[in-house]
Design a protein that fits this description.
Number of strands: 21
Distance between the termini: 111 Å
Radius of gyration: 35 Å
Helix content: 25-40%
Largest sheet: 15 strands, mixed
Structural class: alpha/beta
Strand order of the largest sheet: 1-2-4-6-8-10-12-14-15-16-17-18-19-20-21
Number of helices: 17
Strand content: 15-25%
Length: about 525
Protein backbone atom coordinates (compact mmCIF):
# COMPACT_ATOMS: atom_id res chain seq x y z
CA UNK A 1 0.00 0.00 0.00
CA UNK A 2 1.39 3.36 -1.01
CA UNK A 3 1.56 6.07 1.70
CA UNK A 4 0.00 9.50 1.28
CA UNK A 5 2.35 12.19 -0.06
CA UNK A 6 1.45 14.47 2.82
CA UNK A 7 2.09 11.92 5.54
CA UNK A 8 5.14 10.47 3.95
CA UNK A 9 8.45 11.63 5.35
CA UNK A 10 9.99 13.02 2.16
CA UNK A 11 11.66 16.13 0.83
CA UNK A 12 8.35 17.25 -0.71
CA UNK A 13 6.27 17.08 2.48
CA UNK A 14 8.59 19.23 4.68
CA UNK A 15 8.11 22.57 2.91
CA UNK A 16 4.38 22.15 3.06
CA UNK A 17 4.42 21.59 6.86
CA UNK A 18 6.71 24.62 7.45
CA UNK A 19 4.49 26.86 5.37
CA UNK A 20 1.44 25.74 7.31
CA UNK A 21 3.19 26.51 10.62
CA UNK A 22 4.17 29.95 9.43
CA UNK A 23 0.60 30.73 8.47
CA UNK A 24 -0.62 29.68 11.92
CA UNK A 25 2.10 31.76 13.67
CA UNK A 26 1.32 34.78 11.57
CA UNK A 27 -2.33 34.51 12.46
CA UNK A 28 -1.53 34.33 16.18
CA UNK A 29 0.81 37.31 15.93
CA UNK A 30 -1.83 39.35 14.15
CA UNK A 31 -4.36 38.49 16.81
CA UNK A 32 -2.00 39.53 19.59
CA UNK A 33 -1.18 42.77 17.80
CA UNK A 34 -4.83 43.58 17.43
CA UNK A 35 -5.39 42.85 21.10
CA UNK A 36 -2.47 45.09 22.09
CA UNK A 37 -3.73 47.87 19.86
CA UNK A 38 -7.15 47.53 21.40
CA UNK A 39 -5.60 47.68 24.87
CA UNK A 40 -3.58 50.74 23.90
CA UNK A 41 -6.75 52.53 22.89
CA UNK A 42 -8.10 52.17 26.43
CA UNK A 43 -4.77 52.50 28.25
CA UNK A 44 -4.41 55.33 30.81
CA UNK A 45 -1.15 56.83 29.63
CA UNK A 46 -1.35 59.86 31.94
CA UNK A 47 -1.32 57.60 35.00
CA UNK A 48 1.88 56.03 33.74
CA UNK A 49 3.71 59.36 34.01
CA UNK A 50 6.15 59.81 36.90
CA UNK A 51 4.88 61.43 40.10
CA UNK A 52 6.90 64.60 39.58
CA UNK A 53 5.27 65.24 36.21
CA UNK A 54 1.81 64.54 37.57
CA UNK A 55 2.48 66.95 40.45
CA UNK A 56 3.45 69.58 37.89
CA UNK A 57 0.18 69.03 36.01
CA UNK A 58 -1.81 69.26 39.23
CA UNK A 59 -0.10 72.50 40.17
CA UNK A 60 -2.17 74.26 37.50
CA UNK A 61 -5.41 73.17 39.18
CA UNK A 62 -7.17 74.61 42.23
CA UNK A 63 -6.99 72.62 45.44
CA UNK A 64 -10.55 71.34 45.10
CA UNK A 65 -9.82 69.81 41.70
CA UNK A 66 -6.59 68.29 42.96
CA UNK A 67 -8.44 66.60 45.80
CA UNK A 68 -11.11 65.28 43.41
CA UNK A 69 -8.49 63.37 41.41
CA UNK A 70 -8.14 60.94 44.32
CA UNK A 71 -11.35 59.16 43.25
CA UNK A 72 -10.15 58.43 39.71
CA UNK A 73 -8.16 55.32 40.55
CA UNK A 74 -5.93 53.78 43.19
CA UNK A 75 -2.93 55.25 41.42
CA UNK A 76 -4.38 58.77 41.75
CA UNK A 77 -5.03 58.27 45.41
CA UNK A 78 -1.30 57.89 45.82
CA UNK A 79 -0.65 61.03 43.73
CA UNK A 80 -2.97 63.08 45.91
CA UNK A 81 -1.39 61.78 49.09
CA UNK A 82 2.07 62.85 47.92
CA UNK A 83 1.11 66.21 46.39
CA UNK A 84 3.69 68.70 47.73
CA UNK A 85 1.58 71.89 47.64
CA UNK A 86 -1.46 72.66 49.76
CA UNK A 87 -3.11 76.06 49.31
CA UNK A 88 -6.14 76.67 51.52
CA UNK A 89 -6.57 80.28 50.48
CA UNK A 90 -8.79 79.67 47.46
CA UNK A 91 -11.40 77.72 49.40
CA UNK A 92 -11.45 80.20 52.29
CA UNK A 93 -12.00 83.44 50.40
CA UNK A 94 -15.27 85.12 51.12
CA UNK A 95 -17.62 84.87 54.10
CA UNK A 96 -19.71 81.95 52.91
CA UNK A 97 -17.53 79.44 54.76
CA UNK A 98 -17.87 79.56 58.55
CA UNK A 99 -14.60 79.66 60.47
CA UNK A 100 -15.44 76.38 62.25
CA UNK A 101 -15.89 74.68 58.89
CA UNK A 102 -12.58 76.14 57.77
CA UNK A 103 -10.89 74.67 60.82
CA UNK A 104 -12.52 71.27 60.18
CA UNK A 105 -11.34 71.28 56.55
CA UNK A 106 -7.78 72.08 57.55
CA UNK A 107 -7.81 69.47 60.29
CA UNK A 108 -9.19 66.77 57.96
CA UNK A 109 -6.78 67.46 55.13
CA UNK A 110 -3.68 67.75 57.27
CA UNK A 111 -4.56 64.74 59.39
CA UNK A 112 -4.49 62.62 56.26
CA UNK A 113 -1.18 63.99 55.11
CA UNK A 114 0.68 63.77 58.38
CA UNK A 115 2.78 60.88 57.13
CA UNK A 116 2.26 61.17 53.39
CA UNK A 117 2.50 64.80 52.40
CA UNK A 118 5.62 66.83 51.88
CA UNK A 119 3.99 70.24 52.24
CA UNK A 120 5.93 73.16 50.89
CA UNK A 121 3.33 75.90 50.79
CA UNK A 122 0.31 76.30 53.04
CA UNK A 123 -1.62 79.55 52.89
CA UNK A 124 -4.30 80.23 55.50
CA UNK A 125 -6.57 83.21 55.92
CA UNK A 126 -7.88 83.33 59.47
CA UNK A 127 -11.22 84.76 60.47
CA UNK A 128 -11.12 87.23 63.40
CA UNK A 129 -12.65 84.80 65.91
CA UNK A 130 -11.20 81.54 64.64
CA UNK A 131 -8.86 80.86 67.53
CA UNK A 132 -8.70 77.17 66.73
CA UNK A 133 -8.08 77.59 63.01
CA UNK A 134 -5.02 75.69 61.99
CA UNK A 135 -3.68 74.97 65.44
CA UNK A 136 -1.83 71.82 66.37
CA UNK A 137 -3.18 69.98 63.31
CA UNK A 138 -1.00 72.03 60.98
CA UNK A 139 2.00 72.33 63.28
CA UNK A 140 2.94 68.76 64.09
CA UNK A 141 3.76 67.91 60.46
CA UNK A 142 7.29 66.58 60.49
CA UNK A 143 7.93 67.21 56.79
CA UNK A 144 6.71 70.77 56.25
CA UNK A 145 9.46 72.78 54.57
CA UNK A 146 7.78 75.99 53.45
CA UNK A 147 4.82 77.68 55.09
CA UNK A 148 3.00 80.77 53.86
CA UNK A 149 0.33 82.26 56.12
CA UNK A 150 -1.95 85.02 54.90
CA UNK A 151 -3.44 86.38 58.12
CA UNK A 152 -6.42 88.65 58.72
CA UNK A 153 -6.35 88.77 62.50
CA UNK A 154 -7.28 92.13 64.01
CA UNK A 155 -7.30 91.06 67.67
CA UNK A 156 -4.42 91.73 70.04
CA UNK A 157 -3.59 88.22 71.12
CA UNK A 158 -0.51 86.04 71.06
CA UNK A 159 -1.94 82.53 70.98
CA UNK A 160 -2.19 82.51 67.17
CA UNK A 161 1.54 82.86 66.71
CA UNK A 162 2.39 80.28 69.36
CA UNK A 163 0.06 77.63 68.06
CA UNK A 164 1.30 77.75 64.49
CA UNK A 165 5.01 77.83 64.93
CA UNK A 166 5.98 74.31 65.94
CA UNK A 167 7.11 72.66 62.72
CA UNK A 168 10.68 71.71 63.44
CA UNK A 169 11.32 70.71 59.84
CA UNK A 170 10.31 74.16 58.59
CA UNK A 171 12.91 75.95 56.47
CA UNK A 172 10.92 78.88 55.07
CA UNK A 173 8.14 80.91 56.69
CA UNK A 174 6.20 83.85 55.28
CA UNK A 175 3.75 85.77 57.43
CA UNK A 176 1.79 88.34 55.48
CA UNK A 177 -1.42 90.28 55.51
CA UNK A 178 -2.77 91.11 52.03
CA UNK A 179 -5.87 92.98 53.21
CA UNK A 180 -6.31 96.52 54.46
CA UNK A 181 -4.53 97.63 57.60
CA UNK A 182 -2.19 95.41 59.59
CA UNK A 183 -2.50 91.99 61.13
CA UNK A 184 -1.69 91.40 64.79
CA UNK A 185 1.07 88.93 65.50
CA UNK A 186 2.24 88.14 68.99
CA UNK A 187 5.80 87.05 69.78
CA UNK A 188 6.02 86.86 73.59
CA UNK A 189 9.59 86.83 74.87
CA UNK A 190 9.17 83.55 76.72
CA UNK A 191 8.31 81.76 73.50
CA UNK A 192 11.33 82.76 71.46
CA UNK A 193 14.14 80.73 72.99
CA UNK A 194 13.97 77.06 72.13
CA UNK A 195 11.23 77.45 69.53
CA UNK A 196 11.20 76.08 66.02
CA UNK A 197 12.86 79.30 64.81
CA UNK A 198 16.20 77.59 65.13
CA UNK A 199 15.51 75.56 61.97
CA UNK A 200 14.36 78.44 59.78
CA UNK A 201 16.51 79.43 56.80
CA UNK A 202 14.13 82.04 55.38
CA UNK A 203 11.64 84.36 57.13
CA UNK A 204 9.39 87.03 55.62
CA UNK A 205 7.10 89.29 57.67
CA UNK A 206 4.70 91.56 55.78
CA UNK A 207 2.17 93.99 57.32
CA UNK A 208 2.66 92.53 60.79
CA UNK A 209 2.28 94.59 63.94
CA UNK A 210 4.23 93.31 66.95
CA UNK A 211 2.52 93.33 70.31
CA UNK A 212 5.72 93.57 72.34
CA UNK A 213 7.89 96.55 71.29
CA UNK A 214 10.81 95.23 73.35
CA UNK A 215 11.14 92.26 70.99
CA UNK A 216 13.02 94.40 68.50
CA UNK A 217 16.14 94.11 70.59
CA UNK A 218 16.06 90.35 71.16
CA UNK A 219 13.93 88.64 68.52
CA UNK A 220 16.25 88.69 65.50
CA UNK A 221 19.32 87.24 67.19
CA UNK A 222 21.28 84.01 67.24
CA UNK A 223 19.36 82.65 70.20
CA UNK A 224 16.14 82.67 68.17
CA UNK A 225 17.33 82.35 64.57
CA UNK A 226 20.57 80.44 64.66
CA UNK A 227 20.15 79.07 61.10
CA UNK A 228 18.41 82.01 59.42
CA UNK A 229 19.99 83.02 56.10
CA UNK A 230 17.33 85.28 54.57
CA UNK A 231 15.12 87.81 56.39
CA UNK A 232 12.60 90.29 54.97
CA UNK A 233 10.68 92.73 57.18
CA UNK A 234 8.17 94.77 55.18
CA UNK A 235 5.68 97.35 56.45
CA UNK A 236 5.78 96.06 60.01
CA UNK A 237 5.16 98.10 63.13
CA UNK A 238 5.22 97.97 66.90
CA UNK A 239 9.02 98.06 67.19
CA UNK A 240 10.86 101.31 67.83
CA UNK A 241 14.34 99.84 68.29
CA UNK A 242 15.29 97.13 65.82
CA UNK A 243 18.41 95.03 66.27
CA UNK A 244 19.29 92.27 63.80
CA UNK A 245 22.28 90.06 64.58
CA UNK A 246 21.53 86.56 63.27
CA UNK A 247 24.92 84.87 62.89
CA UNK A 248 24.22 83.09 59.57
CA UNK A 249 22.18 85.83 57.90
CA UNK A 250 23.21 86.46 54.27
CA UNK A 251 20.29 88.42 52.80
CA UNK A 252 18.41 91.13 54.75
CA UNK A 253 15.63 93.48 53.61
CA UNK A 254 13.89 96.12 55.75
CA UNK A 255 11.08 97.88 53.85
CA UNK A 256 8.85 100.78 54.90
CA UNK A 257 8.29 100.28 58.62
CA UNK A 258 4.87 101.49 59.76
CA UNK A 259 6.40 103.62 62.48
CA UNK A 260 9.63 105.56 62.83
CA UNK A 261 12.62 103.75 64.24
CA UNK A 262 14.50 105.27 67.12
CA UNK A 263 17.40 103.03 66.24
CA UNK A 264 18.41 100.44 63.67
CA UNK A 265 21.30 98.14 64.55
CA UNK A 266 22.43 95.61 61.91
CA UNK A 267 25.41 93.31 62.32
CA UNK A 268 26.43 90.08 60.63
CA UNK A 269 29.72 88.58 59.61
CA UNK A 270 28.07 86.58 56.80
CA UNK A 271 25.73 89.29 55.55
CA UNK A 272 26.14 89.70 51.76
CA UNK A 273 23.02 91.53 50.53
CA UNK A 274 21.42 94.39 52.48
CA UNK A 275 18.38 96.49 51.53
CA UNK A 276 17.08 99.29 53.75
CA UNK A 277 14.10 101.35 52.55
CA UNK A 278 12.58 103.74 55.08
CA UNK A 279 10.55 106.93 55.03
CA UNK A 280 11.93 108.39 58.24
CA UNK A 281 15.32 109.92 58.96
CA UNK A 282 16.04 107.88 62.07
CA UNK A 283 17.88 108.87 65.20
CA UNK A 284 20.64 106.27 65.31
CA UNK A 285 21.97 103.75 62.80
CA UNK A 286 24.69 101.16 63.13
CA UNK A 287 25.71 98.77 60.35
CA UNK A 288 28.49 96.22 60.68
CA UNK A 289 28.79 93.83 57.73
CA UNK A 290 32.43 93.33 56.66
CA UNK A 291 31.53 90.79 53.96
CA UNK A 292 28.73 92.79 52.34
CA UNK A 293 28.51 92.43 48.55
CA UNK A 294 25.43 94.52 47.64
CA UNK A 295 23.97 97.48 49.57
CA UNK A 296 20.71 99.30 48.75
CA UNK A 297 19.94 102.34 50.91
CA UNK A 298 16.83 104.47 50.38
CA UNK A 299 15.60 106.66 53.24
CA UNK A 300 15.30 110.15 54.56
CA UNK A 301 18.55 112.00 55.09
CA UNK A 302 20.50 110.68 58.06
CA UNK A 303 19.95 113.39 60.66
CA UNK A 304 20.98 111.41 63.73
CA UNK A 305 24.03 109.54 64.92
CA UNK A 306 25.35 107.18 62.28
CA UNK A 307 27.91 104.42 62.76
CA UNK A 308 28.66 102.57 59.53
CA UNK A 309 31.72 100.35 59.41
CA UNK A 310 33.78 99.80 56.27
CA UNK A 311 32.57 97.37 53.60
CA UNK A 312 35.86 96.17 52.09
CA UNK A 313 34.24 93.56 49.80
CA UNK A 314 31.27 95.64 48.60
CA UNK A 315 30.65 95.41 44.83
CA UNK A 316 27.34 97.21 44.21
CA UNK A 317 25.95 100.29 45.98
CA UNK A 318 22.52 101.85 45.42
CA UNK A 319 22.03 104.98 47.48
CA UNK A 320 19.40 107.70 47.69
CA UNK A 321 17.52 109.76 50.23
CA UNK A 322 15.07 112.62 50.37
CA UNK A 323 16.77 115.89 51.23
CA UNK A 324 14.17 118.26 52.67
CA UNK A 325 15.58 119.15 56.09
CA UNK A 326 17.87 122.00 55.06
CA UNK A 327 21.63 122.27 55.39
CA UNK A 328 23.14 120.23 58.20
CA UNK A 329 26.72 119.33 59.04
CA UNK A 330 25.44 116.05 60.52
CA UNK A 331 23.83 115.12 57.21
CA UNK A 332 27.03 115.98 55.34
CA UNK A 333 29.17 113.89 57.68
CA UNK A 334 26.78 110.94 57.51
CA UNK A 335 26.69 111.13 53.72
CA UNK A 336 30.47 111.17 53.57
CA UNK A 337 30.69 108.27 56.04
CA UNK A 338 28.21 106.21 54.03
CA UNK A 339 30.15 106.70 50.79
CA UNK A 340 33.53 106.32 52.48
CA UNK A 341 32.56 102.92 53.87
CA UNK A 342 31.66 101.87 50.31
CA UNK A 343 34.66 103.32 48.48
CA UNK A 344 35.63 99.88 47.10
CA UNK A 345 32.49 99.48 44.98
CA UNK A 346 32.61 98.64 41.29
CA UNK A 347 29.03 99.74 40.53
CA UNK A 348 27.36 102.85 42.00
CA UNK A 349 23.78 104.06 41.51
CA UNK A 350 22.89 107.51 42.90
CA UNK A 351 19.22 108.51 42.99
CA UNK A 352 16.73 110.92 44.59
CA UNK A 353 18.17 113.92 46.44
CA UNK A 354 21.47 112.41 47.51
CA UNK A 355 23.07 114.40 44.70
CA UNK A 356 21.86 117.59 46.38
CA UNK A 357 23.73 116.54 49.51
CA UNK A 358 26.86 116.01 47.39
CA UNK A 359 26.45 119.50 45.91
CA UNK A 360 26.42 121.03 49.36
CA UNK A 361 29.40 118.89 50.39
CA UNK A 362 31.24 120.16 47.31
CA UNK A 363 30.55 123.79 48.21
CA UNK A 364 31.29 123.24 51.91
CA UNK A 365 34.38 120.98 51.82
CA UNK A 366 35.56 121.10 48.21
CA UNK A 367 34.70 117.44 47.55
CA UNK A 368 34.97 114.00 49.09
CA UNK A 369 38.09 113.12 51.12
CA UNK A 370 38.52 109.83 49.22
CA UNK A 371 38.21 108.35 45.73
CA UNK A 372 36.37 105.34 44.29
CA UNK A 373 39.44 103.56 42.94
CA UNK A 374 37.57 100.46 41.72
CA UNK A 375 34.41 102.11 40.40
CA UNK A 376 33.83 101.13 36.75
CA UNK A 377 30.10 101.76 36.25
CA UNK A 378 28.33 104.89 37.51
CA UNK A 379 24.59 105.54 37.16
CA UNK A 380 22.88 108.78 38.17
CA UNK A 381 19.10 108.42 38.20
CA UNK A 382 17.66 111.70 39.36
CA UNK A 383 15.86 114.89 38.33
CA UNK A 384 18.88 116.94 37.37
CA UNK A 385 19.04 120.72 37.62
CA UNK A 386 21.59 123.46 38.18
CA UNK A 387 21.62 123.01 41.94
CA UNK A 388 22.60 119.35 41.54
CA UNK A 389 25.31 119.70 38.87
CA UNK A 390 27.97 120.46 41.52
CA UNK A 391 27.05 117.11 43.08
CA UNK A 392 27.72 115.43 39.73
CA UNK A 393 31.08 117.23 39.54
CA UNK A 394 31.88 116.15 43.09
CA UNK A 395 31.12 112.53 42.24
CA UNK A 396 33.02 112.50 38.94
CA UNK A 397 36.02 114.16 40.54
CA UNK A 398 36.21 111.24 43.01
CA UNK A 399 35.71 108.57 40.33
CA UNK A 400 38.99 108.52 38.40
CA UNK A 401 38.66 105.11 36.68
CA UNK A 402 34.98 105.00 35.63
CA UNK A 403 34.49 103.41 32.20
CA UNK A 404 30.71 103.69 31.77
CA UNK A 405 28.51 106.63 32.79
CA UNK A 406 24.69 106.59 32.60
CA UNK A 407 22.64 109.68 33.47
CA UNK A 408 18.86 109.97 33.42
CA UNK A 409 18.18 113.64 32.66
CA UNK A 410 14.56 113.80 33.78
CA UNK A 411 14.84 117.51 34.39
CA UNK A 412 12.67 119.45 36.81
CA UNK A 413 12.43 122.90 35.29
CA UNK A 414 12.10 124.54 38.71
CA UNK A 415 15.34 122.98 39.94
CA UNK A 416 17.07 123.77 36.65
CA UNK A 417 16.78 127.54 37.09
CA UNK A 418 19.13 128.29 40.03
CA UNK A 419 22.46 127.00 41.31
CA UNK A 420 21.45 127.44 44.96
CA UNK A 421 24.85 129.10 45.43
CA UNK A 422 25.19 132.86 45.77
CA UNK A 423 28.48 133.12 43.87
CA UNK A 424 27.25 131.17 40.85
CA UNK A 425 23.81 132.75 40.86
CA UNK A 426 25.16 136.32 41.19
CA UNK A 427 27.57 135.66 38.31
CA UNK A 428 24.67 134.27 36.23
CA UNK A 429 26.88 131.26 35.45
CA UNK A 430 25.67 129.01 32.62
CA UNK A 431 26.02 125.23 32.52
CA UNK A 432 28.73 125.37 29.86
CA UNK A 433 30.74 127.88 31.87
CA UNK A 434 30.47 125.77 35.01
CA UNK A 435 31.62 122.58 33.32
CA UNK A 436 34.60 124.38 31.81
CA UNK A 437 35.73 125.36 35.31
CA UNK A 438 35.58 121.70 36.40
CA UNK A 439 37.59 120.15 33.55
CA UNK A 440 40.95 120.26 35.31
CA UNK A 441 39.56 118.69 38.51
CA UNK A 442 37.92 115.88 36.56
CA UNK A 443 40.91 115.11 34.34
CA UNK A 444 41.45 111.49 35.59
CA UNK A 445 37.76 110.70 35.09
CA UNK A 446 37.74 112.22 31.59
CA UNK A 447 40.86 110.26 30.66
CA UNK A 448 39.31 106.86 31.47
CA UNK A 449 35.69 107.34 30.42
CA UNK A 450 34.80 105.08 27.48
CA UNK A 451 30.99 104.96 27.21
CA UNK A 452 28.23 107.48 27.95
CA UNK A 453 24.46 106.95 27.93
CA UNK A 454 22.31 110.06 28.37
CA UNK A 455 18.63 109.25 28.83
CA UNK A 456 16.08 112.08 28.83
CA UNK A 457 13.15 109.92 29.91
CA UNK A 458 9.78 110.72 28.36
CA UNK A 459 10.62 114.24 27.21
CA UNK A 460 9.92 115.03 23.58
CA UNK A 461 12.82 117.48 23.41
CA UNK A 462 16.37 117.24 24.68
CA UNK A 463 16.98 119.72 27.57
CA UNK A 464 19.72 122.24 27.00
CA UNK A 465 21.53 121.16 30.18
CA UNK A 466 21.87 117.63 28.76
CA UNK A 467 23.30 119.00 25.49
CA UNK A 468 25.85 121.18 27.29
CA UNK A 469 26.94 118.25 29.48
CA UNK A 470 27.28 116.00 26.42
CA UNK A 471 29.42 118.61 24.64
CA UNK A 472 31.65 118.86 27.71
CA UNK A 473 32.22 115.08 27.84
CA UNK A 474 33.00 114.96 24.11
CA UNK A 475 35.39 117.89 24.32
CA UNK A 476 37.51 116.40 27.12
CA UNK A 477 36.83 112.66 27.01
CA UNK A 478 40.08 111.32 25.59
CA UNK A 479 39.08 107.63 25.68
CA UNK A 480 35.43 107.88 24.58
CA UNK A 481 34.32 105.08 22.24
CA UNK A 482 30.51 105.05 22.49
CA UNK A 483 28.01 107.86 23.01
CA UNK A 484 24.29 107.13 23.35
CA UNK A 485 21.35 109.53 23.46
CA UNK A 486 18.02 107.88 24.32
CA UNK A 487 14.45 108.68 25.31
CA UNK A 488 11.25 106.73 25.84
CA UNK A 489 8.52 108.45 23.87
CA UNK A 490 10.10 111.34 22.02
CA UNK A 491 10.48 111.51 18.22
CA UNK A 492 13.58 109.92 16.79
CA UNK A 493 14.24 112.93 14.56
CA UNK A 494 14.99 115.09 17.60
CA UNK A 495 17.60 112.57 18.75
CA UNK A 496 19.17 112.49 15.31
CA UNK A 497 19.36 116.28 15.25
CA UNK A 498 21.19 116.26 18.58
CA UNK A 499 23.61 113.61 17.36
CA UNK A 500 24.40 115.68 14.26
CA UNK A 501 25.01 118.67 16.51
CA UNK A 502 27.34 116.66 18.73
CA UNK A 503 29.24 115.30 15.75
CA UNK A 504 30.15 118.86 14.81
CA UNK A 505 31.28 119.72 18.35
CA UNK A 506 34.97 119.63 19.40
CA UNK A 507 36.05 116.14 20.38
CA UNK A 508 39.09 114.78 22.22
CA UNK A 509 38.51 111.33 20.70
CA UNK A 510 37.69 110.82 17.02
CA UNK A 511 36.76 107.16 17.47
CA UNK A 512 33.39 107.82 19.07
CA UNK A 513 30.43 105.78 17.85
CA UNK A 514 27.16 107.73 18.12
CA UNK A 515 23.96 105.79 18.79
CA UNK A 516 20.34 106.56 19.59
CA UNK A 517 17.67 104.51 21.31
CA UNK A 518 14.07 105.66 21.41
CA UNK A 519 10.40 104.74 21.90
CA UNK A 520 11.23 102.48 24.81
CA UNK A 521 12.00 99.63 22.41
CA UNK A 522 15.73 100.10 22.58
CA UNK A 523 15.96 99.95 18.79
CA UNK A 524 19.49 100.78 17.78
CA UNK A 525 20.00 103.58 15.30
CA UNK A 526 23.48 104.37 14.08
CA UNK A 527 24.37 107.73 12.59
Amino acid sequence: MRSSPVLRNSNFSRPLNVATGNIICNCCTSDRRREEEEEDKHRDRISDLPDDILHLILSFLPLKSVAQTSVLARRWSHIWSSYPIIDFYEIFTGDEVHHQIKAMIIETVLAGCREKFDIKVSRVESAPNSRNLGKQECLGLPRVEKLELDLSVREKRDDLAQCKLKCHSLRSLEYKHSGCGSSWLGFPSSYIVGSFFRTLHSLSLNHIYFLDSALGLELFSGSSFSSLEKLKIEKCGGISDLKISCPNLKDLEVWFPLMDFDSLDISGMKLEDLTVVMCNDGNWFNIFAPNLQSFYWDSGALTGKCSIQSFPTLKDLYIGWSHDVGKSTTIYNNGIALLSSSSQVEYLDIFYDFLQTLSEIYFEFGGLPFSFMKLKNLLIDIELGKQQFPGVACLLKSSPVVHELTIYFDVDEGKHEYWNNSLLDDANCSEEQYWETQAQYMSPFLSHLEAVDIDVGERETIPECAVSFAKFLLKYGKSLKRFIISNDNGPRNSLNDIIRLLEKSPRASYYVQFLTFCDGKRVEYKC
